[in-house]
Design a protein that fits this description.
By secondary structure, this protein is an alpha+beta fold. Among the domains are: 27-60, no CATH class; 198-555 and 576-589, YVTN repeat-like/Quinoprotein amine dehydrogenase (Methylamine Dehydrogenase, Chain H), CATH 2.130.10. The chain is 19% helix and 28% strand. The protein is built from seven helices and 28 strands. The protein has helices at residues 25-29, 39-52, 58-66, 106-137, 167-187, 189-197, 570-589; strands spanning 212-217, 227-233, 240-246, 257-263, 272-276, 280-285, 292-297, 302-306, 314-317, 329-335, 343-349, 353-359, 365-372, 394-399, 406-411, 416-421, 426-431, 438-443, 450-455, 459-464, 472-475, 480-485, 492-497, 501-506, 516-519, 528-533, 539-544, 549-554. The strands form seven sheets. It has a four-stranded antiparallel β-sheet with strand order 1-28-27-26, with helices on one face. The longest helix has 32 residues, at 106-137. The radius of gyration is 45 Å and the shape is extended.
C-alpha cells in the first residue's frame, strides 16, 4: 500500500503537446534568462494557484515560482572542468663529479687574510690617486720646467708578530677544530655506530667464549719510530686518553719522546702534543683533577702537566737541585690528598729509589726518599728482617685502594713485597716468586684483599693478601706485558702478551682457560706493551711498538653481568662482586 505525501505539478511540457499558442519547454525553462517573461509566469502561476490557492497569497506564489529548481540546480563554479596533472620522468646519466680534499693550517689562513688586506689597501690607494688626478685635471697644467712632486705614500699597515695576537684568528682556530671533529665523525661514522650498537650475535651460540672488535686507531706522524710505553684514561671525561711514547731502548742513548692526548671524537689527530728531549716511560691522570697528569722520563725526571689550555699549558719538571732519579723512571702513581693540601705522587726509578713528590703552590716540586732497594749505593731507608729482605731492584708498584700506606713492589728478581709504611719504620711481607721480572701489579677494586701480578715468565698470578702462595696461576704462553682488572666486574681480568695477543679471563665462570684469546695483529708482528680499561664504556686501549695504539670493544659474553645483578642497587652489586671472589677463594684454598 502506498500513500502520496507530497505532489508537485510538473512544469515540463512535452514537445508533442506544444501548440501554436502554448510556449515550448525551452521557453518555459528559460524564463530566468529573459525569454517569455509574461507568458511563462502566468502559466506557472495558474498551476500553483490551483494547487496552493487557499494556502498562501499570490505574492508568495510569485516568489516561489521565481526560484530555481532545487532538485537539479547546479552552480557555475561546480561545473569547472577538472585538470589532471601528469608527471613525466626522464632517466639520464648523472653529471661527472670529482671528490677533492685539502687540509688548511692556521698559517695558511693567516696568509690568506693578509693578502686580502693588502689588496684592499691597494684598491683604496688607487681610488685616492684617481680622485687626485681628476681634481688636478681642471687646473692649469704646469710649465715644462716645473715638475709635479710625487704623491706621498701612506705608511704600510702594521704587521702582527704572531697569529695568536689577533682575536679573530683565535675564533677561526676554534671553528676549524669543531669542523675537523665534524669531518672526523663523518669519516668514522661506521666505527662510531659499532662503538654504540655492536653486539656479537655469535655469542648466543657459544656462551663460554667471546670476541673483541677493533674500533679506532690513533697515531701521530712522529710516533711510528717510538713505543707506546704508558696509557691512562681520564677519570672525568669518558672519551679522553693519554699515551706516552719512548724509544725502543730505555737505557740507550738519549732521544726524543712524546706525550699525546687523544679523544674518541677526533681520532685522526691528537688534541695535545708535548715533545720531550727524552723518552716518556709512564703517564697517569690525577684521579680528582681533570686537567692534571704526571709522567716519568728516561732521564730520571718527573714532569707534571696542567693541560687546561692549549696555548699556555703549565709544565712543572724536577731537576738536579730539587731531586731526581739517576736512571729512568719506571712508574709514577698519584695518591689522594686532603682538600687544600699540595698534590702528591710516588715515583719508582730503575736506580732502586722510591720517592714521594709534592707539587708546591709556587709551581715547583720537592721530594723525599721513601725507601731504597739494596742495589743502590746510598743507605737504605727501610730495615726489614732477614726473612723478608729486599732483593733486586724495583720494577713496578701499586697502592692499596683503601689504605695508601700499604704498597706492593715487584722486582727484577721475580719477588713481590708488600710494604707497610709508617712515620718511623717500614715493614715488609714477601710473597711467592715469579721466575722472571715482574711487569705489573694491580689491586682488585671490589675485593681489596686480592691483587694480581704478571711477569716475563709467561704467567699471571692471583694473590690473597698475607698468603705467600698464589690462589690461581695462569700460563699465557708468552711474556706478559701488563694485566689489569675490569672496573665493572671483580672476576674479569685482561692481559696482553708481547706476541700481540689479548687474553680476557672471567675467573668466576672459568679459571682454567680464557674466554677470549685474540691476535689483534694477524699480518705483521708488533710487540704489545700496555693495556688500559675504560671506566665508562666496555672498551680497552692497547698499545705497542711502532706507535701502535688501538681501542677494542668487548662482546656481550665478556661483560655479562651476574644473574642476580639485574635490578639490584649499588650496595647489592658490591655484595655480589665480593661474593664472587669469596667463592673463588674458597674453591682455591679448599
Amino acid at each position: 500500500m502506498t500513500e502520496d505525501i507530497l505532489t508537485l505539478p510538473s512544469r515540463i511540457i512535452h514537445r508533442d503537446e506544444v501548440t501554436d499558442e502554448e510556449p515550448t519547454s525551452v521557453e518555459v525553462q528559460g524564463h530566468n534568462k529573459g525569454h517569455n517573461k509574461e507568458e511563462a509566469p502566468e502559466e506557472g502561476n495558474s498551476e500553483l494557484e490551483e494547487l496552493y490557492g487557499g494556502v498562501i497569497s499570490k505574492t508568495e506564489l510569485a516568489l516561489l515560482d521565481s526560484q530555481p529548481n532545487p532538485f537539479n540546480f547546479s552552480e557555475r563554479v561546480s561545473q569547472t572542468a577538472k585538470i589532471f596533472t601528469r608527471d613525466l620522468g626522464i632517466q639520464t646519466d648523472p653529471p661527472p663529479s670529482t671528490t677533492f680534499s685539502r687540509q688548511v693550517s692556521l698559517c695558511e689562513i693567516y696568509d690568506a687574510y693578509q693578502k686580502d688586506f693588502e689588496k684592499v689597501q691597494e684598491r683604496e690607494m688607487q681610488k685616492k690617486r684617481e680622485k687626485e688626478l681628476s681634481r688636478n685635471a681642471g687646473k692649469q697644467s704646469p710649465r715644462p720646467e716645473e715638475e709635479t712632486p710625487p704623491m706621498p705614500q701612506p705608511p704600510p699597515p702594521p704587521m702582527p708578530t704572531t697569529y695568536g695576537e689577533d682575536s679573530r684568528l683565535r675564533v677561526i682556530a676554534k671553528s676549524t677544530q669543531i669542523i675537523e671533529r665534524m669531518v672526523s665523525q663523518n669519516i668514522y661514522d661506521e666505527v662510531a655506530q659499532d662503538f654504540k650498537y655492536w653486539e656479537d650475535g655469535s655469542d648466543d651460540y657459544r656462551p663460554m667464549e667471546g670476541s673483541l672488535l677493533p674500533l679506532w686507531k690513533f697515531n701521530h706522524d712522529k710516533s711510528r719510530t717510538l713505543v707506546v710505553s704508558g696509557l691512562s684514561w681520564s677519570p672525568i671525561y669518558p672519551d679522553l686518553l693519554a699515551a706516552s711514547y719512548m724509544p725502543g731502548d730505555m737505557i740507550g742513548p738519549e732521544s726524543e719522546g712524546m706525550l699525546c692526548l687523544f679523544t674518541l671524537k677526533n681520532p685522526s689527530s691528537p688534541e695535545r702534543v708535548f715533545k720531550t728531549q727524552s723518552g716518556v716511560t709512564y703517564v697517569q691522570f690525577h684521579p680528582k683533577i681533570r686537567s692534571v697528569l704526571v709522567t716519568g722520563q728516561t732521564d730520571g725526571n718527573v714532569v707534571v702537566y696542567d693541560v687546561r689550555t692549549r696555548a699556555d699549558p703549565t709544565i712543572i719538571s724536577s731537576s738536579i737541585n730539587t731531586g731526581k732519579h739517576i736512571l729512568p723512571v719506571l712508574q709514577v702513581k698519584w695518591i689522594p690528598t686532603e682538600p687544600g693540601a699540595d698534590l702528591s705522587f710516588f715515583s719508582l726509578g730503575m736506580d732502586g729509589r722510591v720517592l714521594q713528590w709534592f707539587v708546591r703552590r709556587a709551581s715547583f716540586l720537592t721530594c723525599s726518599d721513601v725507601l731504597a732497594f739494596p742495589t743502590t749505593q746510598g743507605p737504605a731507608k727501610a730495615t726489614p728482617n732477614d726473612k723478608d729482605a729486599l732483593e733486586g731492584s724495583g720494577t713496578c708498584l701499586a697502592f692499596h685502594p683503601e689504605d695508601h700506606n700499604i704498597i706492593l713492589f715487584g722486582t727484577d728478581k721475580g719477588a713481590i713485597y708488600q710494604g707497610a709504611m709508617t712515620s718511623t719504620t717500614t715493614t715488609f711481607f714477601r710473597y711467592g716468586n715469579h721466575t722472571a721480572p715482574v711487569r705489573a701489579l694491580a689491586w682488585n677494586r671490589h675485593h681489596t684483599k686480592v691483587f694480581i701480578s704478571c711477569g716475563v715468565d709467561w704467567t699471571v698470578k692471583v694473590w690473597l693478601q698475607y698468603y705467600r702462595s698464589p690462589l690461581i696461576v695462569l700460563d699465557l704462553g708468552g711474556p706478559v706485558a701488563e694485566v689489569v682488572w675490569a672496573p665493572y666486574s671483580s672476576s674479569v681480568a685482561v692481559a696482553v702478551t708481547e706476541d700481540g695477543k689479548v687474553h680476557v679471563y672471567d675467573l668466576f665462570l672459568r679459571k682454567c682457560r680464557p674466554l677470549c684469546v685474540q691476535n689483534i695483529i694477524p699480518r705483521r708482528k708488533i710487540t704489545l706493551a700496555c693495556v688500559a680499561f675504560n671506566r665508562f664504556h666496555p672498551i680497552i686501549l692497547v698499545g705497542g711498538d711502532r706507535g701502535y695504539l688501538i681501542t677494542l670493544k668487548l662482546s656481550p659474553n665478556l661483560r655479562k653481568p651476574h644473574k642476580d645483578a639485574k635490578g639490584a642497587d649499588e650496595q647489592r652489586l658490591k655484595e655480589i662482586e665480593i661474593g664472587k671472589i669469596d667463592r673463588l677463594i674458597a674453591i682455591s684454598r679448599g
